[in-house]
Design brief:
By secondary structure, the protein is α+β, with helices and mostly antiparallel strands. The protein is built from 14 helices and 22 strands. It has a 4-stranded antiparallel β-sheet. A 4-stranded antiparallel β-sheet has the order 13-21-18-19. Strands 6-3-9 form a 3-stranded mixed β-sheet, with no helix packed on it. It is elongated and about 80 Å long.
């Protein structure tokens, strides 16, 4: 930081020149293609196309989880292949949260990009990595918000981008800022890689321990033998309406089952006191009950950690009340999350487009039930893994978030310049 201050004092004591995007950068939109031109198998005859979902929103990195393949009969210009130093940007369509998100291209790639994407290419006087950091800053987000709100245009065409102002300090200063900010991003990447490894370790142990139990001489019980009750939530269609003016309580769906807990958000549906009373009579939720998504996306689990005073569950979320003298709540929660057990209850799913595991089939599900002391030992080990992977106050996610905030603070500080007077 001292070196940077010295460079600024030496090279631009009177301030930094700001230029318009249109005067320095190329803005290249991606290719357009039809659904019928997509290819699934023969990769030799296909172009690989990156889209908005290939930019990871949390850290502005590139991912290859779902890359589209399209026929090489689609015309692709040479400028529409990704090159080292390109900044890939989501230009519109799809989810609004993606618009303006960027990823940096570190090497030439045999990939092109879709029509709702664009590439920014910088001249030699503008370090492309410096530009990338500036595009992730609050300055660009502020510009984007006002530029899109002041027009009927809902995508980043060249006209919208044209008047975005960019500071262009001397290259030596740009490189020093990039060096500092990249240190932060490298550390965050290392922590993210460690988190991925720990999550894989957690999944491995979770599945291994329950696979071994199922193949050992541990006695199997039907679920109904070790629980007090299994109920589902109440369907609003017949009994009440959602989101009425007096609705102050939460109506929990699978969206709210997050990391083995219940988390409300702005999109959580609401119910009034009368509806909550009807739901309570049906589900009778208590601390220690296990919530299980039995319809649609089957197999999400959560444990009720505190008294559910202002919420209840929808139909399709099952409330399982364990008999604590026979099976521990957390043991059952982890067991239902294991891959071996998922195979068993998914095999029992029935229905049309939206499948469900019948409650009778759930009650008849055979599960390994070791002594309580052994259940507690397994829970203790899995809790430690779970805390490392998911604890937002003390685990790796907390450390990653702290590093990300540190990066954002220094990024916006380092990219704030005194403007040079004309």
């Amino acid at each position: 930081m001292t070196k940077l201050a010295e460079l600024i004092d030496e090279l631009c004591p009177d301030g930094v020149e700001y230029v318009y995007f249109k005067d320095v950068c190329q803005y290249i939109r991606g290719i357009t293609y039809k659904k019928t031109q997509e290819i699934k198998n023969d990769e030799d005859k296909a172009w690989a196309v990156l889209r908005a979902n290939n930019i990871t929103l949390s850290d502005n990195t590139l991912n290859f989880d779902d890359v589209k393949k399209i026929s090489k009969s689609v015309s692709v210009k040479e400028t529409q292949f990704l090159k080292k130093g390109d900044i890939l940007i989501c230009a519109g369509s799809g989810s609004k949260e993606h618009i303006g998100k960027v990823a940096y291209i570190f090497n030439d790639m045999d990939f092109t990009f879709g029509g709702f994407m664009a590439v920014i290419r910088c001249p030699r006087a503008l370090n492309s990595r410096f530009m990338f950091h500036y595009m992730t800053s609050g300055y660009f987000q502020y510009y984007l918000k006002h530029a899109l709100n002041s027009t009927t245009i809902n995508n980043l065409n060249v006209g919208v981008m044209a008047n975005f102002e960019i500071p262009v300090p001397p290259l030596e200063i740009q490189r020093e800022i990039v060096r500092i900010l990249d240190k932060f991003t490298e550390l965050t990447a290392e922590l993210t890689a460690e988190l991925t490894a720990r999550e894989q370790q957690y999944e491995y142990y979770l599945n291994k321990v329950f696979d071994e139990q199922s193949s050992s001489n541990i006695k199997l019980f039907e679920l109904s033998d070790v629980i007090i009750s299994l109920h589902t939530g109440l369907n609003p269609r017949r009994f009440f309406r959602l989101n009425t003016d007096d609705a102050m309580n939460y109506y929990v769906t699978i969206r709210e089952l997050v990391h083995h807990g219940v988390e409300f958000n702005d999109n959580t549906d609401r119910i009034n006191d009368e509806a909550l009373h009807l739901c309570n009579n049906r589900s009778n939720l208590e601390v220690g009950d296990i919530l299980f998504s039995g319809t649609g996306t089957i197999g999400e689990t959560a444990i009720i950690k505190s008294e559910p005073k202002n919420w209840n569950i929808k139909e399709g979320i099952y409330a399982i009340k364990p008999n604590q003298d026979k099976i521990l709540s957390k043991y059952l929660m982890y067991l239902l999350s294991s891959s071996g057990m998922k195979k068993k209850y998914l095999a029992k799913a029935a229905g049309g487009t939206v499948k469900s595991v019948p409650m009778k089939a759930m009650n008849e599900l055979k599960i390994p039930v070791p002594p309580l002391a052994e259940q507690q030992r397994i829970v203790d080990v899995l809790d430690r893994f779970d805390a490392i992977c998911h604890d937002l106050t003390a685990g790796l996610p907390a450390e990653i978030e702290a590093r990300q905030k540190q990066y954002e603070y220094y990024r916006d500080k380092l990219l704030t310049f005194k403007r040079k007077e004309a």
